[in-house]
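WARN retry 2 of 3 for item q-0093 after timeout on previous attempt; input resubmitted unchanged.
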Amino acid sequence: MKTAIVTDSTAYIPKEMLEKWNIHMIPLNVIFGNEVYQEEIDITWNDFYKEVKTRDLPTTSQPPIGQFVELFERLSAEGYDAVISIHLSSGISGTYQGALSAASMVEGIKIFPFDSEISCMVQGFYALEAAERVMRGEEPEGIMVCLEELKKSARAYFMVDDLSHLQRGGRLSGAAAFIGSLLQVKPLLHFENKVIVPFEKIRTRRKALKRMADLLGEDVSGGGEYRAVIIHANREEEAVEWSKELSLLYPNVEFVIGYFGAVIGTHLGEGSMGMGWMKK
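OK item q-0093 returned
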């Protein structure tokens, strides 16, 4: 069975990796006034953080269902029998639901939508894992079972400098836990039951980074090989340095550098830092 892998732009998989593993990407949109940009196509993360310094904060939107239908039909015409379509958490976006709806409209190809329940490059890890398995000749049903198994070890924690972006966009659940002390803490957040919720109040940026590193250490101490990503919102140098430190601490972890692109960056704000990981 010839299987295609699809993900959306919020996986933030570098272009060269998309091409290497033949992963198809469907973009979400970031909207400045009347101007609509498809992230990762019309606007890069570097350009986005330049734009937000001089313009009002944008809004974001999921891909239209028709865009999914068009892609799935094209893949069918190219001879694919199946599609594994991997998307950001359904708790913060309707993108997965869009893939699900489109799947019911397309004939002649079997669609397997997958809710990663997370975002950014941890979502990308699912797509890369699926692509590797496709290249080894595995069937889509078996790959879907593997992806569900990987959820047991998938984690993502992130720190924001300012919670107002998340509150404004309605992407933070349980924000009341921080009200009244926002100026005194660097909130550490994570995904729980598909939504973003507060994890801990931490007083400084340095302590927040250390706490994320300690959480990684707790997971990898049980053995096995892991892949991890350091995710930054326009703090690339800091991310690279942190990655070097962590590589020395955790030799059984393969680290890559990722970023919060335009859509996720709209909701987190510049200066945010995060880390995600899963077992290989």
